[in-house]
Specification:
The complex is a heterodimer of chains A (245) and B (252). Chain A is mostly helical and 245 residues long. Helices cover 78% and strands 0% of the residues of chain A. Mean pLDDT of chain A is 87; it is low at 241-245. The chains are: A mainly alpha (245), B alpha/beta (252). Bound molecules: adenosine-5'-triphosphate and magnesium ion. The site of magnesium ion has 4 residues of chain B, from α1.
Chain lengths: 245, 252
């Protein structure tokens, strides 16, 4: 049951991305460009201060989800999944391997984006920087697992592209990024409770705006971790041996 | 555990059927492959060769009937005993040749570093790609990718190999080298199941099964199949056409 081969898979993913220079550059540059444009679109610094934690949470979720989802899908379309499924590696090895592999890049991305937002866009924040990072790490973990899970459903790139707006847009509009969840109708508030970004936005705002600690946002952290664990177990199950084609 | 004698078949298929949705790809097919020989699966496009191999490596489960390799039902527990070269190249295109082969060596649990490095080098040299080992797969020609794909399948020295059209896209010289190597493998007691369209490949196999529409329409050694046509000097091509026409006649 121990995913002993996960490390092998993670190393391979890291090698793949490192050899692809252009992707490496884009992973860093694109979030900075997006963040800058959004930052500049707010005339008042105070509004940006309020929206920045939510944007950081959203970007962490969005980019990690996409990167993992697409590359997992490529594993299928280029036929290497067929090889892996016929080999002794377990489904859990694959899921955990992907998690570790992409985690490194998502982490790098988050570090750069958070530092850029705080120092280049001059967003003021409360709370400890390291606690912000820890919280972002938990969001990334959930997002990477979500990416794997969704791509076990999608059979090809077209289907995957359909899933992206389904995952992203409701979360941006229903999870309190732009307006508070409490102002929405009851049934939408209920829906927002099952979307992971709600907890990401809540927690990060508490830390960055109210100066709370990780302990104070323990509930949000626990929900995100729980989400990551449950979704990765489901992903390992949907990734059936017989489903390699 | 029941001890398996040296004569026990490496592959046993008993009235196995498989359909993709409504397409019947394998139709009550029965087949035995003795250990230590090269076994050719011959048949036109869509005959079910790939599907049969995917059943044997455990990627698909038969809807009815049974499939056994080395006396066991294919599963993750038997996965280390087999090597599988899919019909598609199935490689990580960003990675170099050596990174690809080394990855699959690790996947197949060659954990000793020196032993693994040695096996990886042997496998790459065998397919004559050692000079290009640092190149990304993206920069290789189709035939070269085919060679790297074979190296990935054999790197862990499995006793049973399934090669789905391994000689497609190879130049004639390399084709000869491949078959020489396949002969050395069978001498070591390794069993090879090879699918192909070409009668040139068929002539190299110890035994053959002609497939069509998910069924085996004839089986035997190449010379047995040639003789069955009743015409002296018949080629394997003639034999294949003879069996296909015989099927057609009995259908109508
Ligand atoms: N993934 C799939 N989904 C649906 N049908 C499939 C799938 N793969 C194969 N088939 C069908 O199953 C039948 C057998 O296909 P298979 O790939 O086993 O043939 P093959 O003998 O390997 O052919 P080729 O020589 O072209 O490789 C064909 O009718 C094909 O259309
Ligand atoms: Mg085929």
């Amino acid at each position: 049951m121990i995913p002993s081969q996960a490390f092998t898979i993670a190393t391979r993913i890291i090698n793949q991305l490192i050899r692809d220079r252009r992707t490496m550059v884009l992973i860093v540059v694109v979030p900075l460009v997006v963040m800058t444009l959004i930052g500049l679109s707010f005339p008042e610094g105070t509004v940006l201060d309020y929206i920045a934690p939510a944007l950081l949470a959203t970007m962490a979720l969005f980019f990690s989800f996409l990167l993992t989802g697409i590359s997992f899908l490529r594993e299928r379309s280029q036929g290497t999944m067929e090889r892996l499924m016929a080999s002794p590696v377990s489904r859990l090895d694959i899921v955990v391997g992907y998690l570790f592999g992409f985690f490194i890049f998502a982490l790098l991305q988050t570090l750069i984006v958070v530092l850029f937002t705080i120092y280049a866009l001059d967003v003021t924040y409360q709370g400890d920087l390291w606690q912000i990072f820890i919280f972002q790490i938990v969001i990334i973990t959930a997002a990477v697992n979500l990416g794997i899970f969704i791509s076990t459903f999608a059979r090809n790139e077209f289907q995957m592209v359909q899933f992206i707006p389904l995952i992203i847009f409701p979360q941006i509009f229903l999870c309190g990024v732009i307006w508070p969840v409490e102002q929405m109708p009851n049934y939408l508030q209920w829906l927002s409770k099952i979307l992971p970004l709600t907890y990401g936005v809540d927690g990060l705002r508490d830390i960055m705006l109210a100066g709370k600690s990780l302990l104070d946002v323990g509930f949000e952290l626990a929900v995100l971790v729980g989400f990551a664990v449950v979704i990765s177990i489901i992903a390992a199950f949907t990734l059936r041996r017989g489903a390699a084609g | 555990m029941v001890k398996r004698g040296p004569t026990a078949p490496a592959v046993e298929v008993d009235k196995a059927s498989f359909s993709y949705n409504n397409i019947k790809a394998i139709d009550e097919l029965s087949l035995q492959v003795p250990s230590g020989i090269s076994f050719g699966l011959l048949g036109p496009n869509g005959a079910g060769k790939t599907t049969l191999i995917r059943l044997l490596v455990g990627l698909l489960k038969p809807k009815s009937g049974s499939v056994r390799i080395l006396g066991k039902t294919p599963s993750r527990k038997t996965a280390h005993l087999i090597g599988y070269m899919p019909q598609l190249h199935s490689l990580y295109t960003e990675l170099s040749v050596i990174q690809n082969v080394d990855f699959f060596a690790r996947v197949y649990q060659l954990s000793d570093k020196h032993q693994r490095a040695q096996r990886v080098e042997e496998a790459i040299r065998l397919v004559d790609m050692w000079q290009r080992r640092k190149d990304s797969v993206l920069r290789l020609s189709g035939g070269m990718r085919q060679r790297v794909s074979l190296a990935c399948a054999i790197v862990h020295n499995p006793p049973l190999l399934f090669l789905d059209e391994p000689t497609v896209g190879l130049d004639p010289e390399l084709r000869v080298t491949f078959w020489e190597h396949f002969a050395t493998l069978t001498k070591q007691g390794i069993t090879l199941v090879i699918s192909s369209h070409t009668m040139d490949d068929a002539a190299h196999c110890d035994r053959l099964a002609f497939m069509r529409d998910g069924k085996v329409i004839a089986r035997g050694t190449p010379s047995e199949l040639q003789q069955a046509t009743g015409k002296p000097g018949a080629t394997l091509e003639d034999a294949f056409l003879y069996f296909i026409h015989r099927e057609d006649r009995s259908d109508s």
